[in-house]
Amino acid sequence: MENISAQRHQLANALERFSNQQEEVIRIAILESLGTFLLPKILPAFLTKHPQVKIQIAEGFPHTSEDRLLGGDVDCYMGQTPETVAQGIDTYINGGEVYYIVIPENSKFYLKDHFILDPADYDPKELLQQPFVLSNGESAIRHQVNGLFHYFRVQPNIRMTSNSVITATNLAVNGVGFTISSASILKRLEHLPINLYPLDPRQIKLTYFIGVRRGADLSPALKDLVEAFQAAELQEKIR
């Protein structure tokens, strides 16, 4: 029954695009971990300017979102790490964040009365050898984290994985292990005593992008959405 209900919902969404010629439906694929951060910064003003537009959101992992875009199931894709995006997608970047190693209070590396550490406080290779809680292998951040372990020639000690980078970060904050996360995620969680060790952006960084199919004929509203994305303040920081 659940599968039938889901299929009916998908069909209704597909038909909605053609049911009212006065309305335009823009279908956005987005990473689950980014939706609650990016969309509120872009959509309110955009929808005020375009009251005739309806938005459909499709959350998923990067490869799923790319397949949806290339297959014509969505009109654009908001994600991170544009350098790894599939061929056939044009990306427009804006903003980004530093990644941090999250050190919980119960770790021997925790420095009391400190929050954001100085990079000189520790050798990152030593921190990367500790037990980690990470998102699973399909997530955008996990691909980057795997590259970081490879860069430092560290065999990762992965204590636990989750489909959600938010869950992984929350578990780390509560002492299950270390993790690698960003300000836009950490700011959503309960404030507990932790240290944040900033990673060198030359080795790992987060860059936001909106992507469209190469050669696609974009509607005026979709062009405006791309411009709204590029103009938004997406440089998240934590202090």
From TrEMBL:
It comes from the Bacteria. One of its GO terms (biological process) is regulation of DNA-templated transcription. SUPFAM superfamilies: Periplasmic binding protein-like II. GO terms for cellular component: cytosol. Residues 20-231 form the LysR substrate-binding domain. CDD domains: PBP2_LTTR_substrate (cd05466). It holds the Pfam family LysR_substrate. This is LysR substrate-binding domain-containing protein.
